[in-house]
Amino acid sequence: MAEDAAHEHAHQPGHGHHHGPAAAPDQRRRIGLAFGISASIFVAQLVGAVLTGSLALLTDTAHLLTDVLGLGIAFVASHLMLRPSSSRHTWGFRRIEVLAAQAQAGILLAVGVFAAVEGIRRLLEPPEVPAQELLVFGVLGLVGNLVAVAVLAGDRGSTFNLRAAFLEAASDALGSVGVIVAALVMAATGWWQADAVAGLAIVALIVPRAVVLLRDTANVLMEFTPAGLDLDAVRAHMLELPHVRDVHELHASTVASGLPNLSAHVVLSEECFRTGHAPEILRRIKECLHDHFGLDHSTIELEPPGFDTVDPQQHA
User: Fold this and answer.
1) Domain extent at residue 185
2) Would residue 280 count as lying in a domain?
3) If you write DSSP's letter for every residue of the chain in order, what string do you get?
4) Are residues 72 and 91 in the same domain?
5) pTM of the entire structure?
6) Residues 246 and 203 in one domain
7) Which position has the higher pLDDT, 80 or 108?
8) Domain shared by 41 and 152, yes or no
9) How many domains are contained in the chain?
């Protein structure tokens, strides 16, 4: 029956309706451990920033604060992501990782703007900074950040959460290198502007990464087509299947990391509904989406010719 096939929502065999998150206990363990390390480094560097008055160390500490907050958010998000889907939350809490990563990116941008303004001011009026004390705190921060990087490196590409956490830990490590270099330069030459230069260098590390992360998460929230997915190619492949006459209302978005989703209205020849062949065409469409485009989650509405009475100008 056309009515039975028109709203068919099928998945690849074995996928069912459970949209389980990619998050795993190992991910939560990594994030939790990195959170503890970063929080300890933050306390130490905050003390150092107060004692030395260094802009480079203050900027790195402010950056580290966003990491601590971000890792805390990520840790909570990694738990929420494991909550199962329900009739009220059909995708579970998968997208919480996107919101968490976007919040981290926004905080990083705010820190970057503040540090840039302060760095320019200090280039013109450089304060004297105790280089030896600064060096001690720089080395302490570098060691801790490298440990955090090692903890997060193994699974950094699996979710936005881990990607954001790894990038922040890595940029913190580079920031600590900048602090160390500034301390060595000031100790050797007395050129106090080195502290402001190091602070601005840390800003240069923060801002581009924040912008990229903000762009990627905004693309998900705006439900733009997933990167690397060509909807024109998807449409062309579907139209090559026998009995497929038209494809419209074709949309694709990303629910969360590794979870693209596609929907489409597919017009089949009238005979498919008379002979009961429509389910077989639906199965072939699903196989096409899976084999050629890696799409396991899709909603396909099958229609007979002339079924859609809405103005075609409104369709994608």
Assistant:
1) 25-221
2) yes
3) -HHHHHT-----TTTTT----S--HHHHHHHHHHHHHHHHHHHHHHHHHHHH--HHHHHHHHHHHHHHHHHHHHHHHHHHTTSPP-SSSTTTTTTHHHHHHHHHHHHHHHHHHHHHHHHHHHHHSPPP--HHHHHHHHHHHHHHHHHHHHHHHTTTTSSHHHHHHHHHHHHHHHHHHHHHHHHHHHHHH--THHHHHHHHHHHHHHHHHHHHHHHHHHHHHTTPPPTT--HHHHHHHHHTSTTEEEEEEEEEEEEETTEEEEEEEEEE-HHHHHHT-HHHHHHHHHHHHHHHH----EEEEEE-TT---S-GGG--
4) yes
5) 0.67
6) no
7) 108
8) yes
9) 2
